[in-house]
Every structure is written in structure tokens, then in C-alpha cells.
Amino acid sequence: MTSLFQILLLILGVVRTVIFIHFIMSWLISFNVLNLRQPIVAQIWFGLQRLLEPIYGPIRRFIPNMGGMDLSPLVALLGVYAIEIILRNNASYFL
After folding, report:
1. What sign does the dihedral 34-28-82-59 (CA atoms) show?
2. Residue 37 and residue 39: Cα distance in Å, rounded?
3. How many CA atoms lie within 13 A of 66 on its CB side?
4. Collapsed DSSP state (helix, strand, coil) of residue 76
5. Cβ(36)–Cβ(29) under 8 Å?
6. Distance of CA 9 to CAs 62, 79, 88, Å?
7. How many CB atoms lie under 10 A from the CB of residue 72?
8. Contact status, residue 2 vs residue 95, Cβ threshold 8 Å
9. Rounded to whole angstroms, how far apart are CA atoms 79 and 58?
10. Biggest alpha carbon–alpha carbon distance for the chain
11. SS3 per-residue string spanning the chain
């Protein structure tokens, strides 16, 4: 069962990293450091969009419109951290 606990923490770490990459990439695109006309940038961006939309979509329905600011990545990161805290506090059930 310890390996299941470690696998769950690994998955949460990967999700956290992908959200961070998406967040940083969105800022780089907004400030014209990265250009979506470049094929590799567009592939990575739209791939991340398709990957994270099932997480961000339900969050966007509950968060009010902030006038162009998307707070769903922040809420998703808080959710990932909350799940990680719950898992670590209940680690004894996995042993």
C-alpha cells in the first residue's frame, strides 16, 4: 500500500508541474515572448489546453468572472495541495 501512496503523490506532483508550466506559458504568450504562430509552441499550448480543460472547466463555472483574469489555475493548485495534505495526514491508512 505504500507504493499506492507514493504513486498518488507522484501523480499530484505531475499535475502540479503541468499547471505551473501552463500558467507560466500563458504569461509568456500574453507578453509576446512566445508566439502561437510557431508550430512547436502552438502544439504545446493547445495540448496543455486540452489536458487541463477538464480540470479548469468545472472550476470556471463556480468562480465569478474577474474581467479577463482566469483564477482557475490558482484554485486548481490549491485543490492539488489540499489533496496532498489530506493524503499525507492519512498516510497511516496506506501502510
Report:
1. negative
2. 6
3. 8
4. helix
5. yes
6. 27, 13, 9
7. 20
8. yes
9. 13
10. 50
11. CHHHHHHHHHHHHHHHHHHHHHHHHHHHHHCCCCCCCCHHHHHHHHHHHHHHHHHHHHHHHHCCCCCCCCCHHHHHHHHHHHHHHHHHHCHHHCC
Question: Hey, is 66 helix, strand or coil?
Answer: coil
What's the whole-model pTM score? 0.89
Q: Report pLDDT for 68.
A: 81
**How many Cα atoms within 13 Å fall on the side-chain side of residue 91?**
11
pLDDT tens for 60-77 read 999 988 888 889 999 999
Which three cell numbers mark 1? 500500500
Phi, psi of 33 (to 5 degrees): -80, -40
Task: Tally Cβ neighbours within 10 Å of residue 75.
Answer: 16
Place of cell 500574453: 30
**Which grid cell is 68?**
479577463
